[in-house]
Amino acid sequence: MPHHTPLIATIVAGIGIAFLLGVIANRLRLSPLIGYLVAGLVVGPFMAGHVGDQLAGELAEIGVILLMFGVGLRFSLRDLQAVKRVALPGGLAQIAAGTALGLALSLAMGWGVVAGVIFGLALSVASTIVLLRTLEERRMMQAERGRVAVGAVVVEDVVIVLVLLLLPALVHAVNSADHAAGLWKGGWAILFALALAIGKIAVFVVVMLAVGRRLIPALLHRVSLSGSRELSRLAVLAIALALAFGASWLFGVSFALGAFLAGVVLAESELSLQAATETLPMRNAFGVLFFVALGMMFDPAVLLKQPVAVLASLVIVLAAKSAAAYVVVRALKRSIGSALTISAGLAHVGEFSFILAGVGLALGVLPKAAQDVIIAVAVLSILVNPVFFIALDRLRARAQPQPAAPVAGPDEDDPPVTTLTDHAVIIGFGRVGSVIAEALRKDGTAMLAIEERRDYVESARLFGIEVVMGDAQMPKVLAAANIAGARHLFVAIPNGFDAGQIVVQAKALNPELKIVARAHSDAETEHLRECGAHAIVMGEREIALAMYDQMASGRARARARAAADMHRPSAPH
Questions:
Q1: In what order do the strands lie in the sheet with 424-427?
Q2: Are residues 343 and 491 both part of a single domain?
Q3: Tens-digit pLDDT profile for residues 359-381
Q4: Both 373 and 516 in a single domain?
């Protein structure tokens, strides 16, 4: 067996160093993404001399596919509909501002009009992966500002997909523009390509929503009946990757968009939570590879060769785009906090920028120098972006000092505080939480549920109980449930680590609170006990004991019947 394996060496070195630098970044209270990017620099060809294998980029592309699939699982069509009035103009405003300023910079650098349009578009689209990681780290995915930011970046992605499909026809039209006939044909070619691109995307969306909504959940349900968790996990990954690849091959849609729509379709199914849980470790691992691959592409020498272009591009990405988004969000009468959060969340560039730059370079209309600037700006903007959020946190802290017990903030996405006291709080209103609620109702206990999935929130409201929508790990959500005045807490979510964080925060707010949590293993049970839970129920153990009780009670009933038969008087002859 050959031992010259550059791909394996790249993955091992990249993930290993990413782990070490990610830990250091986390200890410094920075995003682990910074450590991953620096790890890519360390193992890349421009620092230590190690030339990363080309397949590492394709592994990073798998990370993009799996992450976008996860976005779709957590961002349903109803969420998109709810934020479209802000997300659509916000995304388009950023694209317009970035493209116009990028074109101006390109003309100043002597790169030409077509190169300027491509360069400007590359600067205008934010990184979906960076945005999602930031929102998840800050527990903002389910807040309105988080949904608006994700909606805006989805709008940007769709626009770039259209551009990628139109670019060859556009280049052909420009190259033929020396003659009237060529210009005429080029114009028609652009219109035809535009109609074809929109038609392909429309057909794909219709197929996914009409056919996939039935077939995909049905397939996963069939696999789940097999009882094999391994096959269930493999089925989810196979569906995500196959739909992404099939979308690109059959409809000309990007891998990322195909995976996103697959997740959106599956989000309408009851199996969406299972799918999200099963794919999370794989998504995280390949997501790390994406950032390592990005760091490997960055040549620090470009900072010395083209300092003006890099600095001007950074100003466009970090300042001009953010300003455009802020103005639009404020014009639509959203709060200052929401406008600042959305502006900061979109102040970077990422994966689609590289794809667009690569296509422009392959068509011969984008110079290599412009591509180097795009990569440099992507890395630097991702490194700087966390500073925006740190500054934003300090601004909010100065504007509204935090009291001893956290309370909901003034923004429209902050939940109102309940008036309930001496009540029970249920974290998660799925299969377990809803059963607990039914039992509490029979006891006449006042209760409240905390849930972040919109469909479960609707179920709880139909059940007739008060609901706080959001992530229970956020202090303002726990405060809105009045944990300080509650008597019991039932942590019914399936993730033991997240449950432990909730238990710790709840105990800090109310040391007398009686907490019952759910676990799936002995390790989770021990973790929850150390966090302060009073009782932990491990589902598998309770099922086993219930099954034994059924058998034992059946034997007892059989013995009782036998004894009764022995003492029963005989019938007269």
A1: 466-469, 447-451, 424-427, 488-491, 514-519, 535-538
A2: no
A3: 888 888 888 888 889 988 988 88
A4: no
